[in-house]
Write a structure and sequence with these properties.
The chain is an all-beta fold.
């Protein structure tokens, strides 16, 4: 019986070599797009990362945005044995090069210089011959010098010189062969100095092909008819009927490897099938690419990672991918003291969950890395879109499914709440007229200060009882919204609950709905007509540390005091006006705001659609940071969710292309100075970054002096952590030595003294 061995590689690391010590990567390495062989290693790529494993030493190298690899979407890779460079082609024409020293080069020649539309610049394949890299693209072939990484020439090889999709190239006897989408196999003579002229190319075969390699000193091509052929000098002869459309054809010189969705075929030089892999035990794997290195078959799958097995004895499979979450598209993330939780089920702007997701729930800990609670263990709950941690029991979480109901998870115990077990005031399914169709869309989970769990539930019958609560007693209660909304389908975003237990619920059409059952089921609706909202599509809300509600809409930002709900029947929101030179303007004017998170210093992290993330001061008047894909390790400028660890200050950014975190100072203030901690300590010569002093009370006074008492730095904390750049008042780096840190609370009733050693 075949079995799978799991090898755990923790992909969690700081990249000190390039001064990215404030960033961490939490990437998935499961969604493989290509696999490439070398004489002593295997290389694999996902859409946003490349990793390689040495065969002899099992040395693992990972390249992602944390250490400078910033792809658009990787489509193919190639490793040059001669130069020890790895090339990664992208869907937009970007070419990334991992150099022999581990540095990253970014080549934008195709993007900037090839005169074709942007949607015609996809790189389909990379082939090396005689020191040149032949880049097969959707417009033709570009050629690069492998040693210098400089582009040489571009060939447009359509029969009339037009651009045409080239899927793969190869060279035999100094003749280059290119498989095209529309013109069969085109052929050119590399000795011809006029090969840039399309008329110098000829049609070698007018059939329909999807790939081509040189193997056993002859051409081998993969047809669109689900068969593979060798060219015997006069005609093509079938060597393999794979019964499925071929995805990749590769060779390592000794074996021929053909990959389809459900087969990996390995053929020897006599074209005998040595191996036909159709499944990986315990996985419903879909194959994407495969190769062979030193008798080991490496198989990249669509969503399960990279596997290896022996060519001689394919009875045991090893999972080779670095440890990570199930996929890179993370929709919501939540941090508990013991775990970081991630869910993948999403919905469109219109709250449409289709196509339904079946990805389960991931959790991360420092001890065990990433673990998965599988879909089947979660009662097959689909499109799990949000998660909340019980504030009175950190080991108990609830996850909402936008199709199947509400999950309660506590250790190994998992329970599903739906329309069958929550009573007449509980969860409801959308009414379709078909009683056998169950669609229970739950969202917006949040706990109030009394421990009751609130959520929204899409309803389209009766009083539209879309607001639900699971009380601490275990009883369910529903509240109707028919009098306050025109949306009979009840589509709501993540809610916030303030200190007064008022529920602030974003809606797609009706603005912001505020509700408090303790004030005679009072509702207030804030919209563009009566509440100064810039748009009635409210995407997110956040209550800050001074009881101001920050409201993110599809077209801008507003704020309002939560306490006004108690005494008013109508609420009008306020724009934040900032000064830009001589001009006054709205903060985030007309910007689509995806998420807002409040840190321990009451500063706001704000995610903007296609705009990255901003950190602004507590009042919004100062922009402290702006991170984008271009100036930071963010893998995308679309951040679905922001989560802050109030203890460590780590800020998590869940994007549509992977999750990263930033180690800032956004910690919650402590109640006393008994646990003040200084790190790193000592500060060594190769350290690049700031010294952090954590465990502070809010507005604590911090003074740093040298051993003789000379003051070198002074500040007041905002939140629980401050940073020191190891400079004397920001001017010059202090010398080696021991420095005293004097900390006093705002009222001077509490104080402590710490030391830090600096070694230059």
């Amino acid at each position: 019986m075949k079995k799978v061995i799991f090898i755990l590689f923790i992909s969690q690391f700081f990249f000190a070599q390039q001064s990215n010590q404030l960033w961490k990567g939490y990437f998935s390495y499961n969604e493989i797009v290509d696999v490439e062989s070398a004489t002593d290693a295997v290389h694999a790529a996902t859409q946003n990362a490349v990793f390689s494993k040495a065969i002899a030493s099992s040395d693992l190298k990972i390249y992602n945005s944390i250490n400078g690899l910033k792809p658009e979407s990787i489509t193919t890779i190639h490793h040059s044995q001669a130069t020890n460079k790895t090339f990664a082609g992208n869907s937009n024409g970007l070419l990334l090069i991992i150099n022999s020293d581990g540095s990253i080069s970014t080549k934008v020649d195709i993007i900037n210089e090839v005169p074709v539309p942007p949607n015609k610049k996809r790189i389909n394949d990379l082939y090396e011959h005689d020191g040149k890299l032949y880049i097969a693209t959707d417009y033709g072939i570009s050629v690069m010098d492998v040693a210098t990484s400089e582009f040489i020439i571009t060939y447009f090889i359509g029969t009339s010189g037009e651009e045409t999709e080239v899927l793969q190239t190869t060279v035999l006897n100094n003749q280059i062969y290119a498989v095209t989408r529309s013109f069969g196999i085109r052929k050119g003579d590399l000795a011809n100095p006029n090969l840039y002229d399309f008329s110098q190319w000829q049609t070698f075969d007018a059939g329909f092909w999807s790939g081509i390699v040189t193997f056993n000193n002859e051409l081998v091509a993969m047809g669109t008819d689900s068969r593979t052929y060798r060219y015997n000098g006069t005609s093509f002869q079938q060597v393999l009927n794979q019964n499925q459309t071929g995805l990749k054809i590769k060779t390592n010189g000794t074996e021929l490897i053909v990959t389809t969705q459900n087969h990996v075929f390995v053929l020897n030089q006599s074209y005998a099938v040595l191996l036909d892999i159709t499944q990986i035990p315990d996985y419903n794997a879909i194959f994407k690419a495969a190769t062979v290195v030193s008798g080991i078959v490496y198989i990249g799958t669509e969503k399960d990672g990279l596997f290896s097995t022996s060519l001689a004895n394919p009875s045991v499979f090893e999972l080779m991918s670095p440890n990570g979450p199930v996929r890179n598209y993370i929709f919501r993330v939540k941090k508990a003291p013991n775990y970081l939780w991630a869910v993948y089920g999403d919905y469109s702007r219109q709250y449409n969950p289709y196509a339904l997701d079946e990805f389960g729930i991931s959790k991360y800990s420092n001890d065990n890395g990433w673990e998965l609670i599988p879909y089947n263990d979660l009662f097959q709950a689909k499109s799990i879109c949000d998660i909340v941690i019980n504030p009175t029991n950190e080991n108990q979480i609830y996850a909402t499914s936008y199709f199947s109901g509400l999950l309660k998870i506590e250790g190994e115990n998992i329970e599903l709440f739906n329309n069958t077990n929550t009573g007449p005031n509980g969860l409801e399914s959308i009414s379709t007229g078909n009683p056998s169709y169950i669609d229970i869309r739950v969202n917006s989970p949040a706990f109030d200060k009394n421990g009751n769990l609130w959520m929204t539930n899409v309803t389209n019958t009766g009083n539209y009882k879309s607001i639900k609560t699971l009380q601490t007693s275990g009883q369910w209660q529903s509240y109707g919204i028919a009098d306050v909304t025109t949306d009979d389908f009840g589509r709501f975003g993540p809610m916030a609950i303030d200190k007064n237990r008022t529920k602030w619920i974003p809606s797609i059409n009706d603005g912001l709905i505020a509700f408090n059952e303790n004030y005679n089921n009072k509702f207030i609706v804030i919209n563009s007509t009566n509440g100064n909202l810039p748009d009635n599509d409210v995407r997110c809300v956040a209550v800050d540390n001074r009881n101001q509600l920050w409201i993110g809409t599809f077209a801008g930002l507003r704020t309002v005091s939560v306490d006004r709900f108690i005494s008013s029947d109508e609420l009008t929101t306020n724009a934040i006006i900032i000064q830009e030179g001589d001009l006054a303007q709205e903060l985030f004017y007309q910007q689509t705001i995806l998420d807002i998170a409040v840190d321990g210093a009451n500063r706001k992290w704000v995610s903007i659609a296609d705009g990255g993330v901003f950190l602004v001061s507590s009042d919004g008047q100062e922009t402290i940071y702006r991170f984008t894909k271009n100036n930071s390790p963010l893998p995308s400028d679309n951040i679905n969710d922001i989560e802050i660890d109030g203890v460590s200050g780590e800020v998590f950014f869940a994007t549509d292309k992977g999750m990263v975190s930033f180690l800032g100072t956004s910690t919650k203030p402590s109640d006393s100075l008994s646990d003040v901690f200084v790190y790193p300590n000592p500060v060594r010569p190769n350290f690049v970054g700031t010294v952090k002093i954590s465990g502070l009370t809010d507005k604590a006074n911090v003074k740093i002096t040298d051993i003789e008492g000379n003051l070198v730095y002074e500040t007041t904390s905002s939140g629980g952590t401050i940073e020191w750049d190891t400079k004397a008042f920001g001017k010059h780096k202090v010398a080696s030595g021991v420095y005293m840190i004097f900390v006093a609370s705002e009222d001077a009733t509490d104080s402590t003294v710490k030391k830090v050693m600096i070694i230059r």
